[in-house]
Specification:
Structural class: alpha/beta
Largest sheet: 5 strands, parallel
Helix content: 25-40%
Radius of gyration: 15 Å
Order of helices and strands: EHEHEHHEHE
Strand order of the largest sheet: 2-1-3-4-5
Strand content: 15-25%
Distance between the termini: 33 Å
Number of strands: 5
C-alpha cells in the first residue's frame, strides 16, 4: 500500500519537481497557497485549510517546501516571514499525526558563511539575516518536537 505524502509549496521549483518525481511511488497530494481546487489549497496562514487538508488526507509524510525565501523581503517584512517560515511549520506539527514523518526544507543561510568549504550538520549556526533566523527557528521547533523528521539545508536549486 502506497504511503500518503503531502507536499507544501508546490508552486515553487522544488515542490513542483518533488510532486512529479514522487507520484509514481506514493499517493502524493500537491498543495498550494492559493488554488481553485479547494482540496489542494493549503495556505500556511489559514487554520481552516489545515483542518480540511489534514483531516481529509491524513498524510504519512509531509514535505514542507513552502517558505518565503526572498531575503530582502524577509528583512523588511519580519512578521509575515515568521508567520510562514516558523508558524507554518508549527501548524504542520499540530495538525499532523504524531507518527507523521516531517521533511523540512531549510537553508544554508542558517550559517554565517565564514566556514571555508562545506558545512556539516554539526557546525555551529549563526544566521546573519532574518530569513536565516526564521529557518533556524523552524528547525529548532522541529528538532524539539520529538517527531520523526529530516531537515535539508539547501543552498541553491537548479
Amino acid at each position: 500500500m502506497k504511503k500518503n505524502v503531502l507536499i507544501t509549496g508546490c508552486s515553487g521549483q522544488l515542490g513542483h519537481r518533488l510532486f512529479h518525481d514522487l507520484s509514481n511511488q506514493f499517493n502524493v497530494l500537491d498543495t498550494y497557497r492559493s488554488h481553485l481546487d479547494v482540496s489542494k489549497k493549503l495556505d500556511l496562514l489559514e487554520k481552516n485549510d489545515f483542518e480540511f487538508i489534514f483531516s481529509k488526507y491524513s498524510p504519512d509524510i509531509v514535505i514542507n517546501c513552502a517558505a518565503i525565501t526572498n531575503v530582502d523581503y524577509c528583512e523588511n517584512n519580519k512578521k509575515h516571514c515568521h508567520s510562514v517560515n516558523v508558524d507554518g511549520l508549527s501548524r504542520i506539527l499540530s495538525f499532523s499525526k504524531v507518527d507523521t514523518k516531517i521533511i523540512h526544507i531549510s537553508t544554508d543561510y542558517v550559517f554565517d558563511g565564514d566556514n571555508e568549504g562545506c558545512y556539516s550538520e554539526n557546525c555551529a549556526t549563526h544566521p546573519l539575516n532574518y530569513y536565516g533566523k526564521s529557518k533556524l527557528e523552524s528547525e529548532n521547533i522541529l528538532i524539539g518536537s520529538n517527531r520523526d523528521y529530516l531537515i535539508f539545508r539547501v543552498s541553491m536549486l537548479f
